[in-house]
Amino acid sequence: MNTRRRFLAAGMAGGWFSQAGWAAGRTEVRFSEIETRIARGDFRDIYKEDLGTPAMILDQAIFEQNLRTMAEHSRTTGINIRPHVKIHKCQEITKRQIALGAVGACCATIAESEFISNAGVRGVLWTCQPAGKNKISRAVALSKKDPTFQVVVDDPLTADLLEQAAEAARARLNVFVDNYVGLTRQGIQPGEPALNLAQMVAGSKHMRLAGLMGYSGHASHTKNWEQRRKRSQEDLAPLLETAALCRKAGLAVDILTGGSTGTYNIDKANGLTELQCGSYIFMDTIYRAIGGKSDDKVYTDFGPALTVMSTVVSKTRPNQCAIDAGNKAMLRPTDEVKGRPEVKIENQGAEYGMLLWNNGDRDIKLGERVEIYPSNLDMSVNVYDRVYVAKGEQIVDVWPIMGRSGPPQR
Fold it and tell me: At CA 311, angle to CA 308 and CA 313, rounded to 5?
């Protein structure tokens, strides 16, 4: 007993218990009790310190400001927003984007498309063409269930197979022709090939030509705003050529969709009618490094709202410590520690990360909570099943993230 008392006293003296909240007079809440309360939506007196780590934390104020900034840009410029789900994989977030004027949602997979459509969101666009029996069948089934669902094609073979499947299911599909605009992973050659595919879609019995797509992925992360503008303009020029050919041939292509967070304030002038932006809601360290129109060094149009909270689990050497967020938590050397930009991050294994710093006056202690800004939002979010919404230190909501277990999730 004396040994335990001495340990507790030492902890008090070192400030760890004070940081954890016991000294502040709050009642300790056991993990099982927190889970029960979260399940019933009771977040009273639940704080970051009560959570297991690693945990994904969303700063409510910054997140909501990011949503408002993009929504206001859409209203003032007239470009529509169809934000990408792959960033967050969360129905609650998509619903908030829709409430602020988004015309639908983009999805990277058929599973995401089903997930978001089942939440009642209309105007879902699957930005990867269906290929193979499973995905074609599911695309047709979702189109029959949700007539506003949309797919893309970049190959006449896919268009033919979709037409056959739609005829068999007595369904009708909304189809965008995906044009190559610099990203070699997808897209038919713009110009005559794209026109021919658009005519094939428009002339079919069970498909409707919804518009054209062209995603300039390289432009989105080009550093320096002016260089980014030039790259996007060059990449999208062939898409505009295809649109002109389609209109000359009598095809209605009112929607030109593409763009990104990096080019959100560029691509209206470059001819797009809607943006497939996604990262703006959270922002990551790689995006912030590309620079903005008003700040060539840091992209400040949207604030960093998402962090991965970890715990210091070992502190045996000066100016370094181990945390419980490692490779499984998608830790990367390009991540950044919130409030400590000088701290260097290293991978140490599946469950471990390492923090190193030179400032001896600003130590990081054993048991301390450390929040880390991710480098890649898609990859980080993909390994968590929930995001904790925080107002300061208090948890005010918990939103489920789409899981990855089981065949239906793919």
Answer: 140
Q: What is the SS3 assignment for 290?
A: coil
In this prediction the pTM is 0.91
Least confident of 17-31, 262-276, 356-370: 17-31
* Closest by Cα among 169, 199, 176, 58 to 128: 176
Instruction: Give pairs for 137-143: CB < 8 Å, separation 24+.
Output: 137/165, 138/110, 138/114, 139/110, 139/113, 139/165, 139/173, 140/165, 140/166, 140/169, 140/171, 140/173, 141/169, 141/171, 142/110, 142/113, 142/114, 142/117, 143/171, 143/172, 143/173, 143/174
- Return all residues near 94 (Cβ < 8 A) that are at least 6 apart: 83, 85, 88, 102, 105, 116, 119, 121
The three-class DSSP label of residue 50 is helix
- CA Rg, the chain, in Å? 24
Q: How confident is the model at residue 5 (pLDDT cuts 50, 70, 90)?
A: very low
Confidence of residue 18 (pLDDT cuts 50, 70, 90): very low
The pLDDT, as a whole number, for residue 32 is: 84
Span between the terminal Cα atoms of the chain, in Å: 54
- Cα(285)–Cα(305) distance, integer angstroms: 11
C-alpha torsion angle, residues 87, 89, 95, 101 (rounded to 10): 30
Q: Judging by DSSP bridges, how do beta strands 80-81 and 105-107 pair with one another?
A: unpaired
Q: Which domains does the chain have, with CATH numbers?
A: 30-59+302-404 (2.40.37.20), 60-283 (3.20.20.10)
